Amino acid sequence: MTEHIHHTLRHATKLRTIDVHSTKRMTPHMQRIVFTGTELHGFFSAAPDDHVKLFFPNADGELVLPTLGPNGPEFAAGLSPSPARDYTPRDYDRQRNALTIDFVIHGDGPASTWAERAQPGQRIGLGGPRGSFMPARDFDHYVLIGDETALPAIGRQLDEWPAGMNVYVIVEIAEKADRLPLGSQADFHVTWLERDGTPAGQSTLLEQALRQWPFPPGDTFYWIAAESHRTRAMRKYLSDERHIPSDWIRAKGYWKSADAQDRDD
């Protein structure tokens, strides 16, 4: 069995404030926001599935960021902390000092609500990324599996991967109108799966597609990102039933749904 060597980088954690430069509704459920600001200079994201922590105004409309102490992030006593969520840096243009982040609009939650209403000039906080994972580039095939929350990372992987890589993408979205244009120098094929009214936490479209995957000869790296319970189930299937080595799988739960709580992990 070929040994494929992955690489991981660690970064010094830094907190910044960033400003909304522009917003654009890409699909019915995806809002693209471009940020800038003097504190953004020096931002670095080495891997397509990096994540940063974004801090949003609290219920009082105030941006209350932590300080980085010996025990991790610490908030000042007596203040309501800014809610924080993890997001993928979709792109960072160093020359323009512009950071692009895509937000899934799902109707609730501090991040989605803020993103849907964001206007140029508004300010939020940014922390990270703390680390970057770079998978080995010598697999015969790469399979990217995810729901709409994974689209920013999937799109960035396709953008950055070179010619000669064989990539298969399986994406679950709410409806056909949520398809985003994807491009790459790599050889890639995309399968879109539309839930068409089924709640994301109750869907099994990704799981069914994975079980129907033809598993071509050669070594394949699997990248999976979706609802946490569903992600674990797909990892378990690959590991227990298809006997895929654990280091050929990178599975990340991007969110949690109450609809999936009763599923077997």
What would you say this structure looks like, in words?
With 265 residues, the chain is of the alpha/beta class. Helix content is 15%, strand content 36%. The chain has 4 helices and 16 strands. It has helices at 110-117, 151-160, 205-211, 228-241, and strands at residues 7-10, 15-27, 30-36, 52-55, 67-69, 72-74, 84-87, 91-93, 98-104, 123-127, 131-134, 141-147, 166-173, 187-194, 220-227, 249-255. Strands 7-4-10-2-3-9-8 form a 7-stranded antiparallel β-sheet. Strands 14-13-12-15-16 form a 5-stranded parallel β-sheet, sandwiched between helices. The protein has a two-stranded antiparallel ribbon with strand order 1-11. β12, α2 and β13 form a beta-alpha-beta unit. α3 (205-211) runs parallel beside α4 (228-241). It is globular, with a radius of gyration of 19 Å. The mean pLDDT is 94.
Q: Brief description of this entry?
A:
With 265 residues, this protein is α/β, with parallel strands linked by helices. The protein has helices spanning 110-117, 151-160, 205-211, 228-241; strands spanning 7-10, 15-27, 30-36, 52-55, 67-69, 72-74, 84-87, 91-93, 98-104, 123-127, 131-134, 141-147, 166-173, 187-194, 220-227, 249-255.
